[in-house]
Amino acid sequence: MREIASKGQLRLAFLRWAVVTVPFILLLGFASARLAPSGSENAWFVRLVKPEIMPPSYAFPIAWTVLYVLMGLALAMIINARGSTLRGPALVLFAVQMAVNLTWAPVFFGMHLVVPALIIVCVMFVLALATAILFARIRMGAALLLIPYLAWIGFAGFLLFQINELNPNAASLVPSRSADQIQIH
């Protein structure tokens, strides 16, 4: 016998998934950010000439926390959409865009590579847009939760472009941690 779940049951199932997905996405983001010091903790980043529209350092962890919470909620909505044939591809696409997202901080803050970080942001935007479009075909609410993420990625890309223009020799401002060795002649 097939039964249809009530709205309350569906809401409860979504909340059970959200209790898992939101902390998981936050943990991934936190772990990626810890691979290399960022913001004012990073000597290289402090020495970069930054665009006038650059938000203060404290805004970035706040923004990313909010974005990761929204992404976790969107992911929970899609996981909970058990009847959709697009659910599997949407989850794979979400995972791919998340993996690309997590490479950005180590490339930018750890390796001091502005142009590759800009390329990562462009790829991240395309993948996140594709994810949002696929999410919209499953649950419009999940796609709407990704709109702030898309806006932030676009803004980040603009900031990175400006940083690249203002710092043509950015990679050589401060040696990376891998270059911190004593040389004996």
Gist?
The protein has helices at 7-34, 43-47, 59-79, 87-110, 114-138, 140-145, 147-166. With 185 residues, the chain is mainly alpha-helical.
Please describe what this structure looks like:
By secondary structure, the protein is mainly alpha-helical. It has one domain: Ferritin (Up-down Bundle), CATH 1.20.1260. Helix content is 70%, strand content 0%. The protein contains seven helices and no strands. The N and C termini lie far apart (81 Å). 28% of the residues are buried.
How would you describe this structure in keywords?
7 helices; elongated; Ferritin; mainly alpha; 185 residues; disordered C terminus
Topology of this structure?
Blueprint: H1 7-34, H2 43-47, H3 59-79, H4 87-110, H5 114-138, H6 140-145, H7 147-166
Strand content: under 5%
What is the helix content?
55-70%
| Gross morphology | elongated
Q: Which H/E pattern describes the elements? A: HHHHHHH
Distance between the termini: 81 Å
Return Rg in Å: 19 Å
Number of helices: 7
Using the coordinates above, name the CATH class: Mainly Alpha
Return the domain count.
1
Q: Structural class, judged by helices and strands?
A: mainly alpha
Low-confidence stretches: 178-183
Largest sheet: none
